[in-house]
Amino acid sequence: MILSQSNTIRIVFLSNEKFFAPGFKIYYQIIEGAKDDSCIQDCPSSCNCRRLADGGIIMASHQLQSISKRLPKKTNAILFRGNKIYQVESNAFVKQSYLSLIDLSYNRIFSIEEMSFVNLPSLKTLRLNRNFIKEVQKNMFSDVGGLEVIDFGQNLISSIEMDTFSGFPALRALSLRSNEIKGLNKLTFQNNTNLRYLYLQDNVIKKIPYGLFHQQKYLNVLFLHENKIEHIDKSSFEGLGKLRKLTLRNNSVNEQTVSKDVFDDLRNLEYL
Q1: Which CATH architecture has domain 46-180?
Q2: Parallel, antiparallel, or unpaired: how do β-strands 57-60 and 48-51 relate?
Q3: Same topology between domain 46-180 and domain 202-271
């Protein structure tokens, strides 16, 4: 019997060249209840899994090209920042009911398939910034309504469908910074009534459609600098009564394209 505390075991046979066989059988058994971090069931050999005091598990790696379908059942956080992952496949995180954080930032992700993030009731934070993502669609997500933080910053996104974020009523922070977004539909954020922080800077947005922020009565921070906005008036920020910080520098507006009463209803504004 060979006993190992690792998820992998390597066995090397040395032959005297007198005996030959086409193969051999090996039987193994997983010992339940092991508390050593090096013996966490279903932890891929390419990952480092660490058990928390409450029994939850944190996974991390810096050498991945794909996301393993085999993940520990009680995983709380997946920290795959700075790998070489190219794609997020459908059902990439299936049966991960404890998962609260997914960090896939600083990878090489070009594609996110339909139903990639499905049935993740505990998921609160999703980071996909600094990749090569060109589009974000509603069908990438299902049953992840508890998401509070989404970061799609520093990608290649050029447009956002009006219902892309409609399934996230608990969303508090959304970053679409440093993309190639040309415009937004007035209904883009209609279901995100709990939004507090919205980062839209460093895009190529030319117009703020009337009604875009009508449902954002709790929004505190709105970054719009480094865009191509040509005109703003009082209706541009209608509904933002609790806004405290607004940035508009380096746009295409001037004294002739900004109405004098544009900030009259922003009574809590502290920074401009």
Answers
A1: Alpha-Beta Horseshoe (3.80)
A2: antiparallel
A3: yes
Give me 180's structure tokens.
Answer: 């190639």
Q: Are 97 and 74 in contact (CB under 8 A)?
A: no
Quick check: 116 pLDDT over 60?
yes
Domain regions of the chain by residue span? 46-180, 202-271
In this prediction the pTM is: 0.85
Q: What is the DSSP string of 208-230?
A: --TTTTTT-TT--EEE--SS---
pLDDT at 111 over 70: yes
Please state, in angstroms and rounded to a whole number, the distance separating the CA atoms of residues 174 and 240.
Answer: 16
Strands (DSSP E) contained in 21-118 are: 48-51, 57-60, 75-79, 87-88, 101-103, 111-112, 117-118
Q: Cα–Cα distance between 241 and 259 in angstroms, integer?
A: 18
**202-271 fold:** 3.80.10
Residue where the block lists tokens 């997983």? 30
- Could you report the per-residue pLDDT of 165-188, keeping only the tens digit for each? 999 999 999 999 999 999 999 999
* Tokens describing residue 31: 């010992």
